[in-house]
Amino acid sequence: MSAPRKLSGLQKDVLRLYRDCLRAARQKPEESRPRFRAFARAEFEKNIDSMKRTDAKAIEYLLRVGRRRMEQYMSPNVRDITKV
C-alpha cells in the first residue's frame, strides 16, 4: 500500500477555505444553512474544470476573492443567500 499523495501548499489553502466556508455556514440560521453550503460548493466547482492546477497566480487570486466574499457573506446582517 502506497503513502497518500502529499498536497501542495495551494491545494491545502483551497481545502482550508472550503472547510472555513462550511464551518461559517453553521453560524447562519438553520433554514438557510443548506443554501450557504450549496453556494460554497457551486463556487468551488465553477472553477474546477476551467483552471489548470499549475496556474498558481489564478488560484491565489481566487483564494483572495473567496476569502473576501466569505467575510462579506458571514456578516451577521446576511441571513440568507440565493444562487443567481
Could you provide a short overview of the structure?
This protein has helices at 9-25, 33-46, 56-73. It has 84 residues and is mainly alpha-helical. The longest helix has 18 residues, at 56-73.
What is the helix content? 55-70%
Q: Which whole number gives the mean pLDDT?
A: 89
Query: Rounded to an integer, what's the Rg over CA atoms?
Result: 14 Å
* Class of secondary structure makeup: mainly alpha
Residue stretches low in confidence (pLDDT < 50, at least 5 long) are: none
Shape: globular
Distance between the termini: 45 Å
Beta strand count: 0
Protein name: Complex 1 LYR protein domain-containing protein
Domain Complex 1 LYR protein: 13-71
Subcellular location: Mitochondrion matrix
Organism: Coemansia erecta
Describe the structure.
Pfam families: Complex1_LYR. With 84 residues, this protein is mainly α. The protein has a domain at 32-84. 58% of the residues lie in helices and 0% in strands. Helix 1 (9-25) runs antiparallel to helix 2 and helix 1 packs parallel to helix 3 (56-73). The radius of gyration is 14 Å and the shape is globular. The chain starts with 8 loop residues before the first helix and ends in an 11-residue tail after the last helix.
Furnish the topology, listing elements before pairings.
Blueprint: H1 9-25, H2 33-46, H3 56-73
Characteristics:
0% strand, globular, mainly alpha, 84 residues, single chain, 58% helix
